[in-house]
Amino acid sequence: MNTLLFQAQLIMFHLSLLAAESEVRELKLIAPSIASMAALRGVALHKKFGGGRNLTLAEAIAHEKPLTLEDINTMVDFFEKFKPDMDDPGWYNPEKPSVGWIRWSLMGGQSGKNWSLDTKKMVEEGLKDKSIKIKTPE
């Protein structure tokens, strides 16, 4: 199944589950499980091989916690600026991972990229026409 189609179906599924009775849908921004698995891998690699100190966003993605709009924007900014080098010998290598692969994984990998870009666009459109509101994390 096409990854983008799967992501769209997953987003629609989450929307249908979280939709309120009224015309306004209340959303919890939670990354899909496939992005969560990548982030879990990234957290494990980070703990084993080291890296920056702030794992708050990566941990939230990994444990499927609700994210804020700021978190989504951080993910989008990362993916817009980060150019993965999948030819690097450390890419996909759990024994000698590249720093880039660890960083990419921490943000949810390709699924995190697709989801964050799609979600940002959907949220911006929904906020403009007031068809959605964001349920903030507790």
- Give the proportion of residues in helices: 55-70%
Q: Beta fraction of the residues? A: under 5%
Derived structural class: mainly alpha
Biggest sheet layout: 2 strands, parallel
Shape: elongated
> How large is the count of helical segments?
6
How are the strands ordered across the major sheet? 1-2
List how many beta strands DSSP finds: 2
Mean pLDDT over the residues? 84
Along the chain, the helix and strand elements come as: HEHHHHHE
Low-confidence stretches: none
What is the distance, rounded to the nearest whole angstrom, between the alpha carbons of the first and last residues?
35 Å
**What Rg do the Cα atoms give?**
16 Å
If you had to describe this structure to a student in words, what would you say it looks like?
Helix content is 59%, strand content 4%. It contains six helices and two strands; from the N terminus they run αβαααααβ. The protein has helices at 3-18, 33-49, 56-62, 69-81, 99-106, 109-128; strands spanning 25-27, 132-134. α1 crosses α6 (109-128), α2 crosses α5 (99-106) and α4 crosses α6 (109-128).
